[in-house]
Amino acid sequence: MTQPNVTDLSANTSGGSESGNLYRPFSVFSVLTLTLLAMLVVATFVWNLLVLVTILRVRTFHRVPHNLVASMAISDVMVAGLVMPLSLVRELYGRRWILGRALCQVWISCDVLCCTASIWNVTAIALDRYWSITRHLEYTLKTRKRISNVMIGLTWVLSSVISLSPLFGWGETYSEDSLTCQVSQEPSYTVFSTFGAFYLPLCVVLFVYWKIYKAAKFRIGSRKTNTITPMAEVIEVKEAERQPQMAFTVRHATVSFQTDGETWREQKERRAALMAAHLSIHVHDHERMQLSSL
N or C: which end of the chain has fewer CB within 10 A? Predict the structure, then answer.
C-alpha cells in the first residue's frame, strides 16, 4: 500500500485554501458595498460624460475656461471607464489581481495618469482665474486661449511622465507570487510621483487662491460706497417798494456711483436713484419758475 506524499498533500491543501480565499462567499455587507461602488462608477461616468456633451454641443461654452473644464471631465471619464471597473474586479477577488501583469501595468498607468491630470487641471483652472482677475487688461481672450491650451498640454505631458515611468524599469507594479497589483513602491519613484502629482499642485492652488482672496479683499476695500448727496436748498425772499419779489435758488444734487463690479440689482437701484435725483431737480426748477412769475 502506497503512502500519500506529504508534500503533495500540503501543496494541494494550500492551493485549496488559496482558491478558497479567491472565491470565498460574500456577506451582506460586502454585497452592499460592491453595489454602492458599482453605482458610483456608473454615476461618475454618466455625470462627466454629460459635462463633455454639454460643452461640445453649446457653442457659448467653446471658450476659456470651459476647455479646461472639458480636459478635467475627460480625465474623470477615463477614471470611471478604465480604472474604476478594474478596481471593482479587484475588490471582488479580495484585493488580489488575477488579470495578469500586462493588464496590471495598464490599470496602474491609467490610474496615475488620469488622477494626476485631474489634479493638474484643477490647478490650471485656478491659475486662469488668478490671471483673469489680476491681469484683466493684458489677459485678453486670445491670450487666455493660447495659455489655456499650453497648460492643458503640459498637464497631460507631466501626467504621462509620472504614470509611465514604472513601465521603463522604475519600480515594479505586479507581484505574481502574492497576486498584488499596486503603484511602484520604489522610494525614489514614490517621492517623485507624490511630489509631482499632489504636493506641487496643492501648493500652487493654495498660493493662487490666497492671492485671489487678497485681490478680492483689496477690491472690496477700495470700492466706494454709492452715495447721493443733495446740497441744501436756499430760498431768499426780498420785499421791494412796489411788489414782493421772491427768488428761489437750487443747487444741483451731487450723485456719485462706483460702477465697477456692480450686480444687476445694484445697477437697477443706481438708475432709479439717479432718475429720482433728476426728477427732484426738475420739480425745484418748475417751482422756481412759478415763484418768479408771481
Answer: N
